[in-house]
Design a protein that fits this description.
Layout (H helix, E strand, L loop, with lengths): L2 H9 L3 H9 L5 E7 L5 E7 L1 H13 L19 H6 L21 H11 L17
Antiparallel strand pairs: 1-2
Length: 135
């Protein structure tokens, strides 16, 4: 059984429909802006309901089993911005960064490499993670 079969079975979404979602993923985002605190605007790319459901399924059923480095505190269960900030209260210096175009910079090859490291049986999952083009 492939990962695509598993997703289809567990989500009750037919495989043909999953493939359609993958092929049209680039067009399944609502784009809007919100103001930044320091001025300017931030582009938000919000996935459509079906795509978001599938993304969450992948996170819950695949990525959640990956080992998280101890210093990546934002991704541990029970994480909070407050707890992360408390870890730095004794630091002499603090650098805060906001990466522009961070998510569009993630390539399909990056995700495929991660999936291969998580499990060699996830080869079919590469089909699910389509590189979105910047708009």
């Amino acid at each position: 059984m492939t990962i695509l079969d598993t997703i289809s079975t567990e989500t009750r979404i037919p495989i043909d429909h999953l493939r359609l979602i993958v092929r049209t993923a680039d067009h399944r985002y609502k784009l809007y802006t919100i103001p930044k605190r320091a001025g300017g605007v931030r582009l938000i790319e919000h996935p459509a309901r079906e795509l978001k459901f599938l993304q969450r399924w992948i996170v819950s059923n695949i990525f959640s089993h990956a080992k998280i480095h101890d210093t990546a505190t934002a991704y541990h269960i029970g994480a909070s911005a407050r707890r992360n900030a408390e870890l730095h209260t004794t630091a002499r210096y603090f650098l805060k960064l906001d990466f522009e175009e961070f998510f569009p910079s993630i390539l399909i090859g990056d995700v495929a490499t991660l999936l291969e490291r998580l499990s060699p049986d996830l080869e079919i999952m590469k089909l699910f993670l389509v590189k979105r083009t910047s708009t």
